[in-house]
Amino acid sequence: MTADIAQQIARAAEAIVASRYVIALVGAGISVESGIPPFRGAGGLWTKHGEPPMDGYQRFLADPASHWQQMLARRASDDEFSQALREAKPNAAHVALARLESMGVLRHTISQNIDNLHFEAGSAAVTEIHGNRTKVRCIDCGARWAWAEFHAEDLESGSRNLTGAPACPQCGGVVKGDTVTFGEPIPRAFLDECHEQAERADCVLIAGTSATVYPAAAFPEMVLNAGGTLVEVNIDETPFSRYAAATLRGPAGEMLPLLVERVAALRDGEPRT
Protein backbone atom coordinates (compact mmCIF):
# COMPACT_ATOMS: atom_id res chain seq x y z
CA MET A 1 0.00 0.00 0.00
CA THR A 2 1.40 3.39 -0.96
CA ALA A 3 1.57 6.25 1.52
CA ASP A 4 -1.00 8.20 -0.52
CA ILE A 5 -3.51 5.35 -0.47
CA ALA A 6 -2.98 4.87 3.26
CA GLN A 7 -3.61 8.57 3.81
CA GLN A 8 -6.78 8.52 1.70
CA ILE A 9 -8.05 5.44 3.54
CA ALA A 10 -7.47 7.16 6.86
CA ARG A 11 -9.32 10.29 5.69
CA ALA A 12 -12.20 8.24 4.29
CA ALA A 13 -12.54 6.18 7.46
CA GLU A 14 -12.52 9.27 9.67
CA ALA A 15 -15.19 10.92 7.53
CA ILE A 16 -17.39 7.84 7.71
CA VAL A 17 -16.97 7.33 11.45
CA ALA A 18 -17.75 10.99 12.09
CA SER A 19 -21.00 10.76 10.13
CA ARG A 20 -24.43 10.11 11.53
CA TYR A 21 -26.06 8.37 8.55
CA VAL A 22 -23.96 6.80 5.78
CA ILE A 23 -25.36 5.49 2.50
CA ALA A 24 -23.61 4.00 -0.53
CA LEU A 25 -24.20 4.38 -4.25
CA VAL A 26 -22.65 1.52 -6.21
CA GLY A 27 -22.50 0.62 -9.88
CA ALA A 28 -21.24 -1.78 -12.51
CA GLY A 29 -17.60 -1.50 -11.45
CA ILE A 30 -18.35 -3.74 -8.48
CA SER A 31 -20.14 -6.34 -10.62
CA VAL A 32 -17.29 -6.40 -13.14
CA GLU A 33 -15.02 -7.71 -10.39
CA SER A 34 -17.37 -10.70 -10.10
CA GLY A 35 -16.92 -11.47 -13.79
CA ILE A 36 -20.07 -9.74 -15.05
CA PRO A 37 -19.30 -7.71 -18.20
CA PRO A 38 -20.37 -4.06 -18.23
CA PHE A 39 -22.85 -2.70 -20.74
CA ARG A 40 -20.98 0.48 -21.65
CA GLY A 41 -17.34 1.34 -22.29
CA ALA A 42 -14.47 -0.60 -23.82
CA GLY A 43 -15.37 -4.27 -23.97
CA GLY A 44 -18.95 -3.56 -22.88
CA LEU A 45 -21.76 -5.72 -24.19
CA TRP A 46 -23.51 -2.81 -25.88
CA THR A 47 -20.21 -1.64 -27.35
CA LYS A 48 -19.66 -5.07 -28.92
CA HIS A 49 -23.20 -6.06 -29.81
CA GLY A 50 -25.17 -2.82 -29.97
CA GLU A 51 -27.71 -1.38 -27.54
CA PRO A 52 -31.08 -3.06 -27.08
CA PRO A 53 -34.17 -1.30 -28.46
CA MET A 54 -34.89 1.99 -26.75
CA ASP A 55 -38.60 1.15 -26.72
CA GLY A 56 -38.28 -2.17 -24.90
CA TYR A 57 -41.01 -1.38 -22.39
CA GLN A 58 -43.41 -0.23 -25.08
CA ARG A 59 -42.79 -3.49 -26.93
CA PHE A 60 -43.54 -5.39 -23.73
CA LEU A 61 -46.83 -3.57 -23.25
CA ALA A 62 -47.79 -4.22 -26.86
CA ASP A 63 -47.11 -7.95 -26.66
CA PRO A 64 -46.37 -9.25 -23.13
CA ALA A 65 -46.67 -12.90 -24.21
CA SER A 66 -43.84 -12.57 -26.75
CA HIS A 67 -41.74 -10.76 -24.17
CA TRP A 68 -42.14 -13.69 -21.78
CA GLN A 69 -41.17 -16.20 -24.43
CA GLN A 70 -38.01 -14.22 -25.14
CA MET A 71 -37.20 -13.76 -21.45
CA LEU A 72 -37.59 -17.45 -20.62
CA ALA A 73 -35.38 -18.34 -23.58
CA ARG A 74 -32.79 -15.78 -22.47
CA ARG A 75 -32.68 -17.16 -18.92
CA ALA A 76 -31.79 -20.57 -20.36
CA SER A 77 -29.35 -19.10 -22.85
CA ASP A 78 -25.58 -19.54 -22.86
CA ASP A 79 -24.89 -16.02 -24.13
CA GLU A 80 -22.06 -14.13 -22.46
CA PHE A 81 -24.17 -12.02 -20.12
CA SER A 82 -26.64 -14.73 -19.04
CA GLN A 83 -23.86 -17.17 -18.30
CA ALA A 84 -21.86 -14.57 -16.37
CA LEU A 85 -24.90 -13.70 -14.23
CA ARG A 86 -25.54 -17.36 -13.38
CA GLU A 87 -21.91 -17.98 -12.43
CA ALA A 88 -21.20 -14.72 -10.58
CA LYS A 89 -20.45 -14.77 -6.87
CA PRO A 90 -20.07 -11.86 -4.44
CA ASN A 91 -16.56 -10.45 -4.39
CA ALA A 92 -14.59 -8.71 -1.66
CA ALA A 93 -16.34 -5.39 -2.32
CA HIS A 94 -19.79 -6.89 -1.74
CA VAL A 95 -18.55 -8.59 1.42
CA ALA A 96 -16.98 -5.38 2.71
CA LEU A 97 -20.21 -3.42 2.24
CA ALA A 98 -22.19 -6.16 3.98
CA ARG A 99 -19.73 -6.02 6.89
CA LEU A 100 -20.02 -2.22 7.06
CA GLU A 101 -23.79 -2.61 7.25
CA SER A 102 -23.56 -5.29 9.95
CA MET A 103 -21.39 -2.90 12.00
CA GLY A 104 -24.26 -0.41 11.98
CA VAL A 105 -22.21 2.11 9.98
CA LEU A 106 -23.66 1.74 6.50
CA ARG A 107 -27.39 2.37 6.71
CA HIS A 108 -28.41 1.75 3.11
CA THR A 109 -26.98 0.82 -0.30
CA ILE A 110 -28.42 2.14 -3.55
CA SER A 111 -27.32 -0.24 -6.29
CA GLN A 112 -27.51 0.32 -10.04
CA ASN A 113 -26.81 -3.39 -10.57
CA ILE A 114 -29.37 -6.14 -11.16
CA ASP A 115 -27.31 -9.18 -10.14
CA ASN A 116 -28.53 -9.77 -6.54
CA LEU A 117 -24.93 -10.08 -5.31
CA HIS A 118 -25.32 -7.59 -2.46
CA PHE A 119 -28.01 -9.77 -0.92
CA GLU A 120 -25.96 -12.91 -1.52
CA ALA A 121 -23.07 -11.26 0.33
CA GLY A 122 -25.31 -10.61 3.35
CA SER A 123 -26.49 -7.04 2.89
CA ALA A 124 -30.12 -6.42 3.78
CA ALA A 125 -30.72 -2.66 3.39
CA VAL A 126 -30.42 -2.41 -0.39
CA THR A 127 -32.50 -0.67 -3.05
CA GLU A 128 -31.79 -1.91 -6.57
CA ILE A 129 -32.91 1.04 -8.61
CA HIS A 130 -32.87 -0.94 -11.87
CA GLY A 131 -34.51 -4.02 -10.41
CA ASN A 132 -33.26 -7.52 -9.66
CA ARG A 133 -32.79 -10.28 -12.21
CA THR A 134 -33.90 -12.92 -9.67
CA LYS A 135 -37.35 -11.33 -9.21
CA VAL A 136 -40.56 -10.67 -11.10
CA ARG A 137 -42.89 -7.71 -10.57
CA CYS A 138 -46.50 -6.76 -11.25
CA ILE A 139 -46.52 -3.53 -13.23
CA ASP A 140 -50.00 -2.72 -11.91
CA CYS A 141 -49.77 -3.12 -8.13
CA GLY A 142 -45.99 -3.28 -7.74
CA ALA A 143 -45.92 -6.65 -5.92
CA ARG A 144 -42.61 -8.49 -6.29
CA TRP A 145 -41.60 -12.12 -5.92
CA ALA A 146 -38.47 -14.16 -6.33
CA TRP A 147 -38.59 -16.37 -9.40
CA ALA A 148 -38.55 -19.36 -7.06
CA GLU A 149 -41.62 -18.05 -5.22
CA PHE A 150 -43.59 -17.36 -8.40
CA HIS A 151 -44.62 -20.79 -9.61
CA ALA A 152 -42.85 -21.88 -12.78
CA GLU A 153 -46.10 -23.13 -14.28
CA ASP A 154 -47.47 -19.59 -14.03
CA LEU A 155 -44.48 -18.28 -15.92
CA GLU A 156 -44.61 -20.88 -18.66
CA SER A 157 -48.13 -22.13 -19.14
CA GLY A 158 -50.27 -21.52 -16.11
CA SER A 159 -52.36 -18.63 -14.86
CA ARG A 160 -52.40 -15.83 -17.43
CA ASN A 161 -54.41 -12.69 -17.92
CA LEU A 162 -55.91 -11.41 -21.16
CA THR A 163 -52.52 -10.21 -22.43
CA GLY A 164 -51.09 -13.73 -22.42
CA ALA A 165 -48.58 -12.79 -19.70
CA PRO A 166 -48.53 -14.42 -16.25
CA ALA A 167 -51.21 -12.90 -14.04
CA CYS A 168 -50.48 -11.25 -10.71
CA PRO A 169 -52.01 -13.43 -7.98
CA GLN A 170 -52.83 -10.31 -5.95
CA CYS A 171 -54.52 -8.04 -8.49
CA GLY A 172 -54.66 -10.00 -11.75
CA GLY A 173 -52.36 -7.46 -13.43
CA VAL A 174 -49.48 -8.00 -15.82
CA VAL A 175 -46.27 -9.52 -14.45
CA LYS A 176 -42.86 -8.85 -16.01
CA GLY A 177 -39.26 -9.43 -15.07
CA ASP A 178 -38.19 -7.06 -12.29
CA THR A 179 -35.30 -5.50 -14.21
CA VAL A 180 -36.16 -2.08 -15.60
CA THR A 181 -36.14 -2.07 -19.40
CA PHE A 182 -35.51 0.85 -21.76
CA GLY A 183 -38.51 3.15 -21.84
CA GLU A 184 -39.85 1.86 -18.52
CA PRO A 185 -40.26 4.32 -15.66
CA ILE A 186 -38.26 3.37 -12.60
CA PRO A 187 -40.86 2.09 -10.13
CA ARG A 188 -42.02 4.86 -7.82
CA ALA A 189 -41.34 2.75 -4.72
CA PHE A 190 -37.68 2.39 -5.73
CA LEU A 191 -37.26 6.11 -6.32
CA ASP A 192 -39.07 7.10 -3.15
CA GLU A 193 -36.81 4.88 -1.05
CA CYS A 194 -33.68 6.31 -2.68
CA HIS A 195 -34.83 9.89 -2.15
CA GLU A 196 -35.67 9.17 1.48
CA GLN A 197 -32.25 7.65 2.10
CA ALA A 198 -30.44 10.53 0.39
CA GLU A 199 -32.39 13.06 2.45
CA ARG A 200 -31.43 11.30 5.68
CA ALA A 201 -27.75 10.85 4.81
CA ASP A 202 -24.90 13.11 5.85
CA CYS A 203 -22.29 10.94 4.09
CA VAL A 204 -22.39 9.07 0.79
CA LEU A 205 -19.88 6.43 -0.27
CA ILE A 206 -19.63 6.13 -4.07
CA ALA A 207 -18.07 2.88 -5.32
CA GLY A 208 -17.64 1.40 -8.77
CA THR A 209 -19.71 3.96 -10.64
CA SER A 210 -19.07 6.98 -12.84
CA ALA A 211 -22.15 8.55 -11.20
CA THR A 212 -23.12 10.29 -14.43
CA VAL A 213 -26.45 8.58 -15.17
CA TYR A 214 -29.60 10.03 -13.67
CA PRO A 215 -31.57 9.61 -11.52
CA ALA A 216 -28.82 7.75 -9.61
CA ALA A 217 -26.40 10.68 -9.92
CA ALA A 218 -28.93 12.92 -8.17
CA PHE A 219 -28.59 11.11 -4.85
CA PRO A 220 -24.98 12.08 -4.05
CA GLU A 221 -25.85 15.58 -5.26
CA MET A 222 -28.62 15.70 -2.66
CA VAL A 223 -26.21 14.71 0.10
CA LEU A 224 -23.62 17.29 -0.95
CA ASN A 225 -26.20 20.06 -1.36
CA ALA A 226 -27.36 19.43 2.20
CA GLY A 227 -23.81 19.88 3.48
CA GLY A 228 -22.90 16.20 3.67
CA THR A 229 -19.63 14.40 2.97
CA LEU A 230 -18.69 12.28 -0.04
CA VAL A 231 -16.15 9.44 -0.14
CA GLU A 232 -15.23 7.93 -3.50
CA VAL A 233 -13.86 4.50 -4.38
CA ASN A 234 -13.28 4.26 -8.10
CA ILE A 235 -10.62 3.35 -10.64
CA ASP A 236 -11.18 6.51 -12.66
CA GLU A 237 -11.97 10.11 -11.85
CA THR A 238 -15.65 11.06 -11.87
CA PRO A 239 -17.54 14.36 -11.81
CA PHE A 240 -17.79 13.95 -8.02
CA SER A 241 -14.06 13.48 -7.43
CA ARG A 242 -13.47 17.20 -6.86
CA TYR A 243 -16.00 17.19 -4.00
CA ALA A 244 -14.74 14.06 -2.25
CA ALA A 245 -13.33 14.25 1.26
CA ALA A 246 -11.23 11.24 0.26
CA THR A 247 -10.73 9.38 -3.00
CA LEU A 248 -9.48 5.79 -3.16
CA ARG A 249 -8.16 5.12 -6.66
CA GLY A 250 -8.34 1.41 -7.33
CA PRO A 251 -10.68 -1.57 -7.68
CA ALA A 252 -13.49 -1.62 -5.14
CA GLY A 253 -12.61 -5.22 -4.25
CA GLU A 254 -9.21 -4.02 -3.06
CA MET A 255 -10.06 -0.63 -1.59
CA LEU A 256 -13.29 -1.31 0.28
CA PRO A 257 -11.94 -4.11 2.52
CA LEU A 258 -9.04 -1.83 3.53
CA LEU A 259 -11.45 1.01 4.23
CA VAL A 260 -13.77 -1.16 6.30
CA GLU A 261 -10.84 -2.49 8.33
CA ARG A 262 -9.81 1.07 9.10
CA VAL A 263 -13.36 2.04 10.07
CA ALA A 264 -13.53 -0.96 12.39
CA ALA A 265 -10.22 0.01 13.99
CA LEU A 266 -11.37 3.58 14.61
CA ARG A 267 -14.63 2.37 16.14
CA ASP A 268 -12.68 0.01 18.39
CA GLY A 269 -10.68 2.94 19.69
CA GLU A 270 -7.32 2.36 18.05
CA PRO A 271 -5.24 5.53 17.88
CA ARG A 272 -5.43 7.44 14.63
CA THR A 273 -2.27 7.57 12.57
Keywords:
six-stranded parallel beta sheet; SIR2/SIRT2 'Small Domain'; 2 domains; alpha/beta; Rossmann fold; 12 helices; 273 residues; three-stranded antiparallel beta sheet
Q: Any overview of this molecule?
A:
This protein is an alpha/beta fold. It has two domains: 1-36 and 89-131 and 186-273, Rossmann fold (3-Layer(aba) Sandwich); 38-87 and 135-177, 2-Layer Sandwich (SIR2/SIRT2 'Small Domain'), CATH 3.30.1600. It has helices at 3-17, 28-32, 45-49, 56-62, 64-75, 80-87, 92-102, 117-121, 152-156, 188-200, 218-225, 252-267; strands spanning 22-26, 106-111, 126-128, 135-138, 144-146, 175-177, 203-207, 229-234, 246-249. Helix 8 (117-121) links the parallel strand 2 (106-111) and strand 3.
SSE order and pairing:
Layout (H helix, E strand, L loop, with lengths): L2 H15 L4 E5 L1 H5 L12 H5 L6 H7 L1 H12 L4 H8 L4 H11 L3 E6 L5 H5 L4 E3 L6 E4 L5 E3 L5 H5 L18 E3 L10 H13 L2 E5 L10 H8 L3 E6 L11 E4 L2 H16 L6
Parallel strand pairs: 1-2, 1-7, 2-3, 7-8, 8-9
Antiparallel strand pairs: 4-5, 4-6
Helix pairs in contact: 1-12, 4-5, 7-12, 10-11
